[in-house]
Write a structure and sequence with these properties.
The complex is a heterodimer of chains A (261) and B (263). Chain A is an all-alpha fold. Chain A has 12 helices and no strands. Chain A is globular. Chain B starts with a helix and ends in a 6-residue tail after the last helix. With 263 residues, chain B is an all-alpha fold. The chains are: A mainly alpha (261), B mainly alpha (263). At the A-B interface, helix 2 and helix 9 of A face helix 2 and helix 8 of B.
């Protein structure tokens, strides 16, 4: 366990060291991300300009949701961005490098890349918490703790949607669309949907657990919600890891020789 | 004149043929568009259950988003191709050929975008029909919407070419594209008809081309009027002329500064 933690910390340290070499690029990307995220706030601003509160969600609650999604996404992008390339690694037969190392394959793939510009997502999330009217020291701590958990659920979701690559030769467009849909749905409260769509958002693309439930817990705290959130994260993580191990039997190496620097 | 038109329509046709090699990408691509429309449908359905918006119905708003999104999503990212041409020096390949680079890239992007638009429109409108069971326009009005949508594409492609060319001065045009995509989102009325905006935002949109590139097609589809159709066409032609002029001007400056180093 400690050895794994040491490995993860070492991988992050190396990644950040490399990325901090490009300070100017980092600053531009981070600012761009914050500006980009504000457009989602604009969306809800216009919507609630013509509509009243819906299912208990008003402008303040949706701003908090958008900010929370950004921070949770930031956790994934800053610490586990390698999950994004998982689909490509499988499709191109490039998993060999990770298979040959005595480390957890999924973890190794996830920490193999970081996106430093995601720091902007954290800043944006905190600004949203501040302007939503739900700011307090307790909520700030909970906000970050839940965002970390949601970030990990994001990672497992991205791995889950990469798994078809083990069976279908060309899945990049399908993966890209599922990836976009996951993020898109995460920025809407699941309470806005019903029937089959709600079922998908709770159990298949778990947008409900990624954003809606944590935000509801921030606005109306209950220990039951915290418990459900943690239980889901553990069960979902183990299920995806199990499915990955099953799918791995279908993996075909690309036999490519590449230099990793 | 006719010879030139023949040349660029040839480029347009090549892109159409090329498209059919990757038709599944577009069909998979529709998946996301379908999801966006469905999200809006559920969102507005909840809103309309509580409050009505004067002049709009649930069906009108969903059809609006379907058309505005189809036009925008179908426009290919020509700025990226131009950016690559400038960075990798591929621009020199075109300088020695009897084609105008601006018109060549314009025809190329329009060819691919046009066929994608037709497929996206067919799929999104079929999807909306399944949701509501009717179309908010007659066949003739729909023909007018298609006509205006083609001009919307022309305008969006030209703005894309213009921002791509600006990359010559800044080494990377992605920052311009970022501004462009956000301007479409807000000032174009990509997800909300501009009529629903606060007055101050509406006033700004009136002075920009994005209103005529996105809002125009969606608005025509849900509340068609001959006067508005004529206004849309005139404003589109005006902005197309402005951006065509700007592209040609910037390109003439760039082509004088191109430095060919080796072969």
């Amino acid at each position: 366990m400690l050895k794994t933690l040491d490995f993860v910390l070492c991988a992050w340290k190396l990644q950040f060291k490399t990325l901090f070499e490009y300070k100017k690029s980092f600053a531009i990307s981070a600012i761009t991300m914050v500006v980009n995220d504000f457009f989602m706030v604009f969306f809800w601003y216009v919507f609630f300009n013509v509509m009243p509160k819906i299912a208990g969600w008003g402008l303040n609650e949706t701003i908090l949701l958008v900010g929370f999604t950004a921070t949770a996404f930031g956790v994934y992008a800053l610490l586990f961005a390698g999950a994004r390339n998982f689909n490509e690694f499988v499709a191109n037969g490039e998993l060999d490098f990770f298979l040959l190392k005595p480390k957890n394959i999924l973890l190794h793939v996830c920490v193999s890349k970081t996106d430093i510009s995601a720091a902007g997502e954290f800043v944006f999330g905190w600004i949203c918490l501040l302007i939503s009217g739900y700011f307090s020291l307790g909520n700030f701590i909970l906000f970050n703790a839940f965002a970390f958990l949601s970030g990990i659920i994001f990672v497992f979701t991205f791995i889950l949607i990469s798994l078809p690559a083990f069976f279908i030769p060309k899945t990049d467009v399908l993966y890209h669309n599922l990836w976009n849909s996951t993020i898109h749905f995460a920025t809407y409260p699941t309470d806005f949907f019903s029937g089959f769509v709600k079922f998908i958002l709770v159990f298949i693309i778990p947008a409900f657990f990624i954003t809606t439930l944590p935000v509801q817990t921030l606005t109306h705290f209950s220990w039951m919600s915290v418990l459900i959130l943690f239980a889901f994260a553990i069960v979902f993580g183990f299920t995806v890891s199990f499915l990955f191990k099953l799918c791995l039997k279908r993996y075909e190496s690309g036999n490519s020789i590449a230099l990793r620097t | 004149m006719f010879k030139a038109l023949e040349k660029y329509s040839g480029v347009f046709k090549i892109e159409l043929i090329d498209f059919f090699q990757s038709k599944w990408d577009v069909i998979f691509g529709f998946l996301f568009l379908g999801i966006v429309i469905f999200v809006f449908y559920q969102l507005w359905a909840l809103g309309f259950a509580q409050k009505a918006i004067p002049g709009y119905s649930l069906a009108k708003l969903v059809f609006y988003v379907a058309i505005a999104e189809s036009v925008t999503i179908s426009t290919i990212r020509i700025y990226k191709i131009i950016d690559d041409d400038l960075k990798k020096g591929l621009l020199t390949n075109y300088l020695s050929k009897p084609v105008n680079y601006v018109f060549f890239q314009f025809s190329r992007a329009l060819g691919k975008s046009a066929i994608t638009l037709f497929i996206n429109l067919a799929l999104t409108l079929a999807f909306c029909f399944l949701l509501f069971g009717f179309f908010p326009f007659s066949l003739l009005e729909f023909a007018a919407v298609i006509f205006a949508s083609i001009f919307c594409l022309c305008l969006l492609v030209l703005v894309g070419v213009f921002f791509g060319l600006l990359g010559f001065y800044t080494e990377d045009s992605s920052a311009f594209y970022f501004v462009y995509s956000k301007a479409i989102y807000i000032f174009g009325g990509l997800v909300f008809p501009l009529d629903l905006y606060p007055q101050w935002l509406k006033s700004i949109s009136d002075f920009l081309p994005f209103k005529w590139a996105v809002f125009a097609a969606g608005k025509l589809a849900i509340s068609f009027s001959t006067d508005f159709f004529i206004e849309v066409l005139l404003m589109q032609l005006f902005w197309i002329a402005v951006f065509a002029g700007l592209c040609l001007f910037v390109f003439s400056r760039i082509s004088r500064k191109v430095f060919i180093n080796g072969g």
